[in-house]
Amino acid sequence: MTRAIYPGSFDPIHRGHLDVIECAAPLFASLVVVAMYNPAKSAGFFTLEEREAMIAESVAHLPNVSTARAPGLVVHAATELEADCIVKGIRSASDLDVESQMAHTNKAVTGVQTVLLPAEPANAFISSRFIREITKQGEDVTALVPAPVAERLRRKVVSAHD
Amino acid sequence: MTRAIYPGSFDPIHRGHLDVIECAAPLFASLVVVAMYNPAKSAGFFTLEEREAMIAESVAHLPNVSTARAPGLVVHAATELEADCIVKGIRSASDLDVESQMAHTNKAVTGVQTVLLPAEPANAFISSRFIREITKQGEDVTALVPAPVAERLRRKVVSAHD
Amino acid sequence: MTRAIYPGSFDPIHRGHLDVIECAAPLFASLVVVAMYNPAKSAGFFTLEEREAMIAESVAHLPNVSTARAPGLVVHAATELEADCIVKGIRSASDLDVESQMAHTNKAVTGVQTVLLPAEPANAFISSRFIREITKQGEDVTALVPAPVAERLRRKVVSAHD
Amino acid sequence: MTRAIYPGSFDPIHRGHLDVIECAAPLFASLVVVAMYNPAKSAGFFTLEEREAMIAESVAHLPNVSTARAPGLVVHAATELEADCIVKGIRSASDLDVESQMAHTNKAVTGVQTVLLPAEPANAFISSRFIREITKQGEDVTALVPAPVAERLRRKVVSAHD
Amino acid sequence: MTRAIYPGSFDPIHRGHLDVIECAAPLFASLVVVAMYNPAKSAGFFTLEEREAMIAESVAHLPNVSTARAPGLVVHAATELEADCIVKGIRSASDLDVESQMAHTNKAVTGVQTVLLPAEPANAFISSRFIREITKQGEDVTALVPAPVAERLRRKVVSAHD
Amino acid sequence: MTRAIYPGSFDPIHRGHLDVIECAAPLFASLVVVAMYNPAKSAGFFTLEEREAMIAESVAHLPNVSTARAPGLVVHAATELEADCIVKGIRSASDLDVESQMAHTNKAVTGVQTVLLPAEPANAFISSRFIREITKQGEDVTALVPAPVAERLRRKVVSAHD
Fold this sequence. Notes:
The structure is a homohexamer. By secondary structure, chain A is of the alpha/beta class. The first copy, chain A, has one domain: Rossmann fold, CATH 3.40.50.620. Chain A contains six helices and five strands. Chain A has helices spanning 15-24, 48-58, 74-80, 93-110, 128-136, 147-161; strands spanning 3-8, 30-37, 65-71, 85-90, 113-118. Chain A has a five-stranded parallel β-sheet with strand order 3-2-1-4-5, with helices on both faces. In chain A, helix 4 (93-110) links the parallel strand 4 and strand 5 (113-118). Chains in contact: A-B, A-C, A-D, A-E, B-C, B-E, B-F, C-D, C-F, D-E, D-F, E-F. At the A-B interface, helix 4 and strand 5 of A face helix 4 and strand 5 of B.
C-alpha cells in the first residue's frame, strides 16, 4: 500500500494543483497534500490555516486524499509523514532542472522516491504568484482556482477595492 | 492495487533501465516491463525473444515485476495489459518534450496516466544505441548492463572479432 | 499591410495547427497557410491536393486566410509568396532550438522575419505523425482534428479495418 | 491595423532590445515600447523619465514606434494601451518557459495574443543587469547599448570613479 | 601554457565542484579555484577565510591547482589573475542559458574564453544551498562534500543541535 | 602539453565550426580537427578528401591546428589520436542533452574528457545540412562558410543550375 505526499506552498491551491492531485490520487493507496511553510518567514497571502482549509475543501470529492502541514524542508515532511513517494507536477524544462535536483537530493538523504506528473496542458500556465498579483490589483481570476478558493479570492478582491 | 507498465525497446536492457525498474517496483502492486516491437520492421540487434529473456533475467530479484511483449503503440499495450499507469524514465529537457507529448496523447486516447521518474544520475548517460554500436566495433561495455546481458554481449563481441 | 505565411506539411492539419492560424490571422492583413512538399519524396499519408483541400475547408471561417502549396524550402516559399513574415507555433524547448535556427537562417538568406506563437496549451500535444499512426491502427482520433479532416480520417479508418 | 506593445523594464534599453524593436516595427501598424515600473518599488538604476527618454532617442529613426510608461502588470498595460498584440524577445529555453506562462496568463485574462521574436544572435547575450553591474564597477560597456544610452552610461562611469 | 580559473562562491565546496576541478586540472598548466565574494554583502554561511581554506585542503592532492579570492565580477577576477580561460561546470538546460550568457558577456568585455565541463553524473544534483539548509536543520550531509569540509560541517551540526 | 581533438562530419566546414576552432586553438598545445566518416555509408555531399582539404585550407592561419580523418566512433578517434580532450561546440539545450550523453559515454569507455565551448552567437544558427540544401537549390550561401569553402560551393551551384 503506497503512501504518497504532494508538497507545496498552495498559496492558494489552483486548478493546476488540483489536476496533479486528481491524476495522482488513483495511483496510490493514499495521497497527503502537504502545505509547506517556513517558520522563519511571514504568513503569506493566505494564512496557513486558510491554505489548508482551501486544500481540504478542494479535495473533498477524493476519498483517499487528506491534508497536512509541515515546516521546513520536504525531506523532513517525507520522513515525518512516512511517505513512500513524493509527487510533483512538471510543466517545462526549467521545472525539470529544479525538480530533478530536488528529487536526487531528497533520495540521497531519505531514500524516498519522487515521481513527476506532466502537467495537464489546459491549466499548465497557472501560478499561485500570478493569482495573488492579479487579486491584489482588484481583478477576478476565480476561473483559475477550485470553487472553494474562488469565494475567498472574491472577498480579497472586494477588500482590495475598498 | 495499481498496475504499471514500463514500455521500451530494451535492445538491450541496460543499467539505466534497471534503475527505473528498481525505483518504480516498490511504488506499485505490479510492474510489467514491456518489450515493444514494430511488426513492420526488422528484428533489431537482439531478437525479441532474447530481449524479453534478458529483461526477465535482469529483474528476477524483484518479485512484483514481470515481462511482456507488445506490437505497435504504447496506447495499445496499455489497454491490452489493463495498465493503470505508464512509467517512463526522464533524463533531460529533450526527453521531457518527447515524453510529455506522448503522455498527453496516450491519456487523451486511453485515459491512462503517465508518471515520469528522474533518471538515477550515475547511469543516466547510458543508451541502448551506444551499447549496440560499441559492441559492433568489438569492444566491451558490459559494465553498463545487468550481468545477464553482459554475457550475451560478450558473445556478440567475440563474433564481431571473428 | 503585413502578409504572413504559415508553412508546414499539414499531413493532416490538426487542432494545434488551427489554433496557430486562429491566433495569427487577426494580427496580419493576410495569412497564407502553405502546404510544403518535397518533389523528391513520395506523396505522404494524404496527397498534396487532399492536404490543401482540408486546410481550405478548416479555415473557411477566416476571411483573410488563404492556402497555397510550395515545393522545397521555406526560404523559397517566403520569397515567391512575397511574405513579410513567417509564422510558426512553438511548444517546447526542442521546438525553440529548431525554430530559432531556421528563423536565423531564413532571415540571413531572405531577410524575412519569423514570429513564434506559443502553442495554445490544450492542443499543444497533438502531432500529425501520431494522428497518422493511430489512424493506421484503425482507431478514431477525430476529436484531435478540425471537422473537415475528421470525415476523411474516418474513411481511412474504415479502409484500415477492411 | 494592428497595434503592438513591447513591455519591459528597459533599465537601460540595450542593443538586444533595439534588435527586437527593429524586427517588430515593420510587422505592425504601430509599436509602443512600454517602460514598466512598480509603484511600490524604488526608482531603479535610471529614473523612469531617463529610461523613457533613452527609449525615445533610440527609436527616433522608426516612424511607427512610440513610447509609453505603465505601472504594474502587462495585462493592465495591454488593456489601457488598447494593444492587439504583445511582443517579446526570446533567447533560450528558460526564456520560453517564462514567456509561455506569461503569454497564456495574459491571454486568459485579457484575450491579447503574445508573439515571440527569436533574439538576433549577435546581441542575444546582453542583459540590462550586466550593463548596470559593469557600469557600477566603473567600466565601459557602451558598445552594448544604442548611442543615446552610451553617453548617459559614460557619465555614470565617471561618477562611479569619483 | 594555459592558465585557467574556476570561479564560484564555494560556500562550501562540495563533491560536484571537486569533480569539475579534477576533470579540468589535467587539461591546463595551472588552475586557480577562485572564491568570489561581494564586498557589499554579508559573510555567508562560512567566512571567506573558511571557504578558501576548505578549497585548499580539498585540492591538496592536485599539484597544479591553487586558490585565490576575488571581489565582485568574474570579468575582474579573470583580468587580475591573468586567466586565459574560465572553467564552469554545467548540469542542465537552465545552467546552459545562464552560463552561455555570462560566457559571451565575459568574452565581449575581456576577451577571455569560457569552457563548460559537463557535470559528472553521480554528483550533479549537489548544491551548496541544499548543504547549508540541511546542516542548519541539524542533519548530516557530509557524504556530499570532500573530507576536509565534512569535519567543519559536523561542528556546525553540533552547534545547530545545541 | 594538452592535445585536443575536434571531431565532426564537416560536410562542409562552416563559419560556426571555424569559430569553435579559433576559440579552442589558443587553449591547447595542439588541436586536431577530425573529419569523421562511416565506412558503411556513402560519400556525402563532399568527398572525405574534399572535406579534409577544405578544413586544412580554412585553418591554415592557425599554426597549432592540424587535420585528420577517422572512421567510426569518436571513442576510437580519441584513442588512436592520443587525445587528452575532446572539444565540441554547444548552441542549445538540445545540443547539451546530446553532447552530455556522448561526453559521459566517451569518458566511461576511454577516460577522455570532453569540454564544451558555447557557440559564438553571430554564427550559431549555421548548419552544414542547410548549406547543402540551399546549394542544391542553386543558391548562394558562401557568406556562411570560410573563403576556401565558398569557391567549391560556387562550383556546386553552377553545376546545380546546369
